[in-house]
Amino acid sequence: MGPFRFLLLFFFLGVVAAESPQTILRTTTQAVAASAFAYDHLYCDSWRLSVETNNARFWRTVPFRCSEFVQEYMSGARYASDTDIVVDESLAFARSVQIANDGNDAWIFDVDETLLSNVPYYAINGFGTKVFNETSFNEWVDKARAPALAASLRLYEELLVSGFQIILLTGRNEAQRKVTVENLLHAGYHSWRSLIFREDSDMGKPAVVFKSGRRAELEGQGFRILASSGDQWSDLLGFPMAQRSFKHPNPMYYIG
Amino acid sequence: MGPFRFLLLFFFLGVVAAESPQTILRTTTQAVAASAFAYDHLYCDSWRLSVETNNARFWRTVPFRCSEFVQEYMSGARYASDTDIVVDESLAFARSVQIANDGNDAWIFDVDETLLSNVPYYAINGFGTKVFNETSFNEWVDKARAPALAASLRLYEELLVSGFQIILLTGRNEAQRKVTVENLLHAGYHSWRSLIFREDSDMGKPAVVFKSGRRAELEGQGFRILASSGDQWSDLLGFPMAQRSFKHPNPMYYIG
């Protein structure tokens, strides 16, 4: 349904309800509000697409006019649906692959907004409309209570059973290893082959350099990187790339 | 606006209109129809995202349940809005670039669904729900009457004025050069530096191999490929990549 059809419906409601000049005034105001809403919705949906396709880069915060849109997207059925479809596509690929028995068929996962959801944190911190606050975010990470993204847990479990080696490659720091392991286990993840953090020597590297560098090392160790899953294009791009890359949705923040 | 809010509105309309058991029955049917519509809309919006992010690959036709969705998307305000935002992001990048005066700063464009719109053809051929028919599509191409995508023409004109060398790289065949030039000129495009088609020796190559191979040749000729614009990921991926890639929307067909 296009927003304009919604607008027509809204007008129809207004006309049906119109019984006095006052009512007409009120419904006109409602229609104007609906029109602005529809216009912003159209813009924000296009903005979100530009984020998800990597056309928009280096953005610091969600545009102010899209704050309600992103909140509704993240809290409603759309984020869950979008994540479900990513996982369905991932599983379709996984099932098409012949796994060797040498323990070298790897699937790489990012952690934040890919396996774990920080929505409980962002829900009380503006859903991406505020500039990233490292101090308060690290306090949230230290609690180790980020829930699993349900669809990702479904994917993870099937990959494990299928014999994929699961490698977690996160932009979190080595100093956060203990709480991260605790959080992953608490959320239901287990049996990963390795969990790779940023070391001191990686500080200051763009994420895409850090992550593609680690993929090169993994290939050097004999792994065949069949797939990567991440909510940022910097999880996926750079040389070497996985055979297939799966972009999970995230309109709340950008990491270059 | 989430589809469920639309559903609530629909119920409200039903309740207001309910005056007899027959009316109630009819409005219940409407509500069920609205529910199926909302469910399909949610699914199809997620499917479209998976297409635009390159998570879904090698699909042959638009899913049957999404035929109305794609028709509405392509015909309504959303396709135009999405294309507008891609162009806004492209121009923001173009304006940030310092152009050298050596005539080597290149911007590569794909043609179909990037500069020219084949919507008039697809509108009478199922909007991607039918398997691609090369014969009828080539008849359409021979007419040389595909209109410009308005936003792309706006981008193209500003790039020319800014001193970019514009290179058109299309999957069309060399045999279609004459009608393609005629169509591009008719649609308002002009002054490209070169227009590259598939030669006989490129037949059978996947698009991504053909196009990245041509980019390598262009770099060999001294071009700096600052950006690529295309509606297919096979226009953009592969080595070498442009400094920035801009994915234009296209939920109607897939080229690998």
TrEMBL record, chains A, B:
Alphabetically, the GO molecular function entries are: acid phosphatase activity
The protein's name in its UniProt record: (wild Malaysian banana) hypothetical protein
Give the family per the record.
Belongs to the APS1/VSP family.
NCBIfam families according to UniProt: plant-AP
- So which residues are the signal peptide here? 1-18
The answer to whether keyword Signal applies is: yes
Q: What keywords were assigned to this record?
A: Glycoprotein, Signal
